[in-house]
Amino acid sequence: MSTASTLPEPLAEVVSDFQSVQGQEKLQLLLELANELPALPAELEQAAMEPVPECQSPLFLHVDAGDPDRVRLYFSAPAEAPTTRGFAAILAVGLDEQPVADILAVPDDFYSDLGLAALISPLRLRGMSAMLARIKRRLRDA
83-110 pLDDT, tens per residue? Predict the structure, then answer.
């Protein structure tokens, strides 16, 4: 696996989980993650979040880089958009509370190692790429 060594440990574990299952089981894992997307904290309003228009469903994210050793990531996606929620959950599980440098080191195409390309449209996969790109841009701008 080309990217495993450059991924923060929690994200590497998610990638490994996807690599350990095949076919429709990958979609089931994505749906399970979608159900685990953390709720937004009460003090964070969706209006203060950045939209990710590249996603086919409404998705908003917020990057809190106040502590460069422990970046906080927040996502909002509707329950009726399980694929988008699943992608957000992968990034939330894999990158929340990680250092800025570790997040910036994640390859832009790490999601190709999840093995979802045969199951999910390229347009949807671009949404995940866009989420990561926006997170990285926010960190570089911080």
Answer: 999 999 999 999 999 999 999 999 999 9
| pTM (2 d.p.) | 0.94
- HEC readout, the chain: CCCHHHCCHHHHHHHHHHHCCCCHHHHHHHHHHHHCCCCCCCCCCHHHCEECCCCCCCCEEEEECCCCCCCEEEEECCCCCHHHHHHHHHHHHHHCCCCHHHHHCCCCCHHHHHCCCCCCCHHHHHHHHHHHHHHHHHHHHC
The first and second tokens of residue 112, run together, are 């190709």
